[in-house]
Amino acid sequence: MARPRSFDADDALAAATRVFLTHGFDGATLEDLTGAMGVNKPSLYAAFGDKSALYAKVLAAYAAQAKAAVETAIDSGDTLEGACRGVLLGAIDVYAPVRGHHLGCLIATTATTAAGSAPAVRKVVATFLAELDHLIEATLRKRFGRQLAAGAVASAAGVLSATMFALAIRARAGTPRERLLAIAESAVDTIGTVAKARPG
């Protein structure tokens, strides 16, 4: 009979996410991971596979959470500007929390470096970006498409997506949170200009 796990898999994945976010894939050692996750190496291998397999699981979970958060924020906004502001402020809270380290986005600021030498990671990143772009545009279109001119939804979605990743990079580079918030507001103003276009 298999022995029951002595750790919570979700908590262990969350701990591994923090390690990979801090050190990147190449910089994260097995000692870093097992120490943070509270498991020994045999337990890690048994539950998650090797370091690459663990990283893939972490990326998949992070991507799913990010897409769900974006969709929820857009659905919660009463206006296009409000929805986009909610997405960007939520992203800043993740990338540069009021308390804690400003590490950016696991995918935008760490997985992209690993993607250069790891085709499997590159595929995960490319898939995530494509799916997120589609999700943003589709959700904006569902909520606000009738109010916007032809092509305006795609333009707004493009500004929103690009701003999210720019904020992630700047947060990782140490840009103060106040500056990130100002950038987000400028992007919302730009999106608001799109929203004021007369429907075509």
Spell out the key features of this protein:
200 residues, single chain, mainly alpha, elongated, Tetracycline Repressor, domain 2
List the topology elements.
Blueprint: H1 9-27, H2 30-37, H3 41-48, H4 51-76, H5 80-95, H6 106-115, H7 119-144, H8 152-172, H9 177-195
Helix pairs in contact: 1-2, 1-4, 1-6, 4-5, 4-7, 5-8, 5-9, 6-7, 7-8, 8-9
Shape: elongated
Q: How many individual helices?
A: 9
Name the poorly predicted regions.
none
* Superfamily (CATH H level) name: Tetracycline Repressor, domain 2
Topology-level CATH name: Tetracycline Repressor, domain 2
Per CATH, the architecture is Orthogonal Bundle
The proportion of strand residues reads under 5%
Please tell me the overall pLDDT: 90
Q: How many strands appear in the DSSP assignment?
A: 0
CATH class: Mainly Alpha
What would you note in describing this structure?
There is one protein chain. 35% of the residues are buried. By secondary structure, the protein is an all-alpha fold. The chain is elongated, with a radius of gyration of 19 Å. It has one domain: Orthogonal Bundle (Tetracycline Repressor, domain 2), CATH 1.10.357.10. Helix 8 runs antiparallel to helix 9. It contains 9 helices and no strands.
Summarize the structure.
The chain is mainly alpha-helical and 200 residues long. Helix content is 76%, strand content 0%. It has helices at residues 9-27, 30-37, 41-48, 51-76, 80-95, 106-115, 119-144, 152-172, 177-195.
